[in-house]
Amino acid sequence: MPAFLQMNDCLSTRHGHLYVEACDTVELVKAFGSPLFVFSEKQIRENVRRFQQAFQQGWPDGPVKVLPAAKANWIPAIQRILADEGCGCDVYSEGELSIALEAGFDRSLISVNGVPKDEAHIYRCIDAGVRLTIDSLEEVAVIERAAKELNKVARVRLRLKPPLPGFTRRSDFVAEGMVPTDIAALVYKGGLTYDQVLEVAPRLWRMKNVELLGFHQHHGRHSRSLEYWEEQMRRFAREVGRVCRALGGFQPKEIDIGGGFPIPRDPFNAATDYTQPLQLAALQGISSVLKMAGKSVRYPLLTRLINMFESRPNRNPAYSIEDYADVCTRTLREELLRQGVSVAGVMLQLEPGRSVHGNAGIHLTTVKSIKRITRPIQWNSIIVDTTEFWFTGGRYEHHLHDYVFANKVDHPLVGKADIIGRSCYGDRLLPIVPVPEVEVGDILAILDVGAYQEVSMSNFNALPRPASVLVCGDRAELIRRRESEQDVFRRDVIPERLRLKEPRVPSRAHDQVN
Ligand SMILES: *Cc1c(COP(=O)(O)O)cnc(C)c1O
Asked: 421 partner at 20 to 30 Å CA-CA among 16, 215, 232, 331?
């Protein structure tokens, strides 16, 4: 089995090609063009079922519901799959709410999160009968007014922000420096502190048209370690206990622990990037010393140094869904009971985003050009027809994705190269990675891009964004079409006074010369 493959993977290799379920990825590019996002229906369904089963196993006291975060992949066809699985939906924006309502999720399992929430958005949520997860002091008065005006009951939960003083290891979210997780979690905007909760909870409690159902938290993927999850659950349960006591013995009906669970190959891992700043510092330091020595000494020595550099995707898999479920449910249950909060009948909710979608998506891109520098230093660039602007969700979190050449999966890795995107930025998609003998026309598969990537694409360089297909067994169907140039320009307006009086005919100078 090639090193990149995992247990329960939608990926496999057959006759030297990469497959998603029963579809040959090389054929997918022929059929749908390049570049291309490919999602596996089976992988998405399997991921949510594992979450459902594993958490239910550790939470025998009440129902467990998985509410995947829509922001990670809000493509409507994908949301239909999740609704079909009986999931709920964690929603942030108005647009995501529209998609969730269209997809047909049980409305009592749609949680609308986030800050700020516009007034019209709050009115719509209450009117639609979805849950509002309160994350600001400002929205409380709007909720009360909206519920009264609409003559409906607003069903709400409070988003807490329990501090994590017991977990001070560096946060993976901040690759540029060493920021302790407890500090990174505190400064993140989500959640209300205990003091803020005490300001709003008693008011909510007294409101006639507002029903407080329970509590929410989400710290996100600061770390993959089980201790981090244990600390989160313990502090969350204590905070819930503290708030319940302050409310004179309030009993929550639902408790939502948020998301942030890592995916198996765990590319959301700053570790792989740490070496790069070190490499560059070494290059800078040694380079300036060698400047005195002259070109004939400096370049050969720098070449030797550069040849030592290499990025490798993470080969140390994260814990399994079952491991996270076990530590989360056990800690939460124990600590809630210790706090005097009953767990009987309490609905446990979780909001995995990346771990539902991440390993269900790959990106296929074609090699367009190969540039080799041999003097005065050695450097190889493989230029492909995609761009880092279509992986900005990953850039933001410092991913280093695993990859494989889809038409050469069993070719030995014989060299090293930068994999470079097509935009006019530096666009280093994969810096200095091992590669096989590569030719123009080869197809590179970038793995684990199912979460946050497709949905964060931009139109830098006026590039039309690529299509997405959904694979189900040996079937592949378009779920988002490739953009046309018209799509790219559809929002543009030229004020009348700046318009050309007569549309300019493209000049055809060489025709006239003839
Ligand atoms: C983003 C987000 C999630 C999902 O986070 P992942 O790291 O993708 O699992 C869940 N809940 C809330 C409130 C979020 O903002």
From this structure: 16
